[in-house]
């Protein structure tokens, strides 16, 4: 579309353009604040400074030495990676079935799953807590991995099903005529074609599990994940912001890289009708 | 199968529909395979979401006592609900959650659409901008909360610094009811607007270009093109984004928990905060469950009201 054709547009967008610039600032400035504060000297956080003077790594060493941030990071990584792996295995199978196989009532099932994915966690937290307590699974990895898997599966199934629908039918038929069984068909024909969908579902699940707070806070008192760890840094009277932000920069890092590398998939996941924050 | 069987079914099939027969058997087998493939996922989801929801309903309708080893249910009662419905804190939390949800989603939608319109016009650096937008979206909400807590801090927070610089002194932002609510909303809007922007942008990109050319030939101005063409065409995208955001925002917990712990007083106590406090601070599983169940019920009503939108969404991709 040439610029001339959008003269009408031009005016609208130009009006918005200036505010658009401020909106970008609105996004960037808090992040800038987070990063520079993490590099300030923890002893003199008591003033507003727009540039760290001098730069200091003390907050980082404090996060890892005084607070057990390394352990929280490992805990988060174990829980998140396990849940993501389980979600992808179960979700790919279910997504294939719901997208391509002639099951009765799969439409209703899809609508139900979509609704479950929006249900507030508070509705299930008390029964899950007592259940996990009975099983002796409070403060355990599986006590978070299994709830996360269940909670993030519906949305992953939704993304995967939509990708499965887009694969041409002939692919399976050819494979079947060649004498391949259903599992081999899924593994060697469908899965490679649905790989973008698997990536998308993977990123979404990873992000959801990495950032989850309410269940981690309730079920795991001593086995803390990053969000719980960061929320409980310091004492009731003193919040060590420098340390918190140093830990935050480290926590944002893996997911930032992941999202940046796979941004195409994230955006396609967000836009293929898969709308969830 | 013997040859006789095959010819028999083949003959019958011929009489009704010529293509039924083996495909039908195959279809049944494929359906069974479908259930087998879905079973692990469905079992896990049912066990960890549907069963606990049912159990929450049972607890909310029982006399619950918390013992050292767990909880015990002693008979049916509706007193948990009457307690909740008569409680003024619950009334406030309900109103707060609803108003908070609608205001934040509305602002996110307006600013998100503005960002999307700007991004659509960018010819270079759009990928970078998208990546930038994804950063707040992928951020841990607790970190977002701590970050804004620091910004609002009364001694060395930059918000305080700026307010003082424009002559407003040092207001106790998070310690006063309305400023605290607005402060939470700003933190929420900061994190979620980029996500709305990406959805709107995707909708914008898919709009047909020739319709704009026609509008321009007809002499339509920028504003009226936006309101008469862009907004109506975007409506399905926007409606779905809004629906999902509204239902999701209803579970508001992380932000007020870290930033204000529901305070000052009960100023920022959302339904989820109220339920959590009743359950795990007062160890009152009966009323806590009643709060949780009513919250879930409101979300369910929201879902059922918009059932058509869900069905359209599922159907759009399928069949």
Account of the 3D structure:
The complex is a heterodimer of chains A (277) and B (319). With 277 residues, chain A is mostly helical. Helices cover 72% and strands 0% of the residues of chain A. Chain A contains 13 helices and no strands. Chain A is globular, with a radius of gyration of 23 Å. The two termini of chain A are 32 Å apart. With 319 residues, chain B is mainly α. A two-stranded antiparallel sheet of chain B has the order 1-2. The longest helix of chain B has 39 residues. Chains A and B meet through α1, α3, α4, α5 and α6 of A and α2, α4, α5, α6 and α8 of B.
Number of domains of chain B: 2
Strand line-up in the sheet with most strands of chain B: 1-2
- Shape category of chain A: globular
Number of strands of chain A: 0
Q: Major beta sheet of chain B, specifics?
A: 2 strands, antiparallel
Name the features.
heterodimer; A: 277 residues; mainly alpha; MetI-like fold; 2 domains; 13 helices; 72% helix; globular; disordered N terminus; disordered C terminus; B: 319 residues; two-stranded antiparallel sheet; 14 helices; 2 strands; flat
Topology, element by element:
The complex is a heterodimer of chains A (277) and B (319).
Chain A: H1 7-38, H2 58-65, H3 69-100, H4 106-116, H5 122-135, H6 142-165, H7 170-177, H8 182-193, H9 195-211, H10 214-219, H11 226-231, H12 241-261, H13 263-271
Helix pairs in contact in A: 1-12, 2-12, 3-6, 3-9, 4-6, 6-9, 7-8, 9-13
Chain B: H1 3-16, H2 22-60, E1 62-67, E2 70-76, H3 79-86, H4 88-121, H5 126-138, H6 141-152, H7 158-165, H8 177-205, H9 210-217, H10 222-249, H11 254-259, H12 271-281, H13 285-305, H14 307-317
Antiparallel strand pairs in B: 1-2
